[in-house]
Amino acid sequence: MPRACVPQRLVPARPSCLALACPLHYTLAHSLRLMPTCPLHSCCCKILRAPPTHALAHDASYCLRPCHSVRFAAMPQPTRQTCLVSMLATSTPMLLPRLGTRPQAKPLALMTHGGDTYHHQPKLPHHEVDNEGLTKLLADNAPKSMKEQKFESYFGRKIAIDASMSIYQFLIVVGRTGTEMLTNEAGEVTSHLQGMFTRTIRLLEAGMKPIYVFDGQPPDLKKQELAKRYSKRADATDDLAEAVEAGNKEDIEKFSKRTVKVTKQHNDDCKRLLKLMGVPVVEVYAVASEDMDSLTFGAPRFLRHLMDPSSRKIPVMEFEVAKILEELNLTMDQFIDLCILSGCDYCDSIRGIGGQTALKLIRQHGSIETILENINRERYQIPEDWPYQEARRLFKEPEVVTDEEQLQIKWSAPDEEGLINFLVSENGFNSDRVTKAIEKIKAAKNKSSQGRLESFFKPVANTSAPIKRKGSKCVLQSPKQEIKPRIFSLQACYSSGPKLNGGLCLLTLDLGSKHSSLLGRVLLEEQCIGCGLCMVL
Amino acid sequence: MLELRLVQGSLLKKVLEAIKELVNDANFDCSATGFSLQAMDSSHVALVALLLRSEGFEHYRCDRNISMGMNLNNVSKMLKCAGNDDIITLKADDGSDTVTFMFESPTQDKIADFEMKLMDIDSEHLGIPEAEYHAIVRMPSAEFARICKDLASIGDTVVISVTKEGVKFSTRGDIGTANIVLRQNTTVDKPEEATIIEMHEPVSLTFALRYMNSFTRATPLSNTVTISLSSELPVVVEYKIAEMGYIRFYLAPKIEEDEDETKPQV
Question: Where is it localised (chain B) (predicted)?
Answer without folding.
Answer: Nucleus
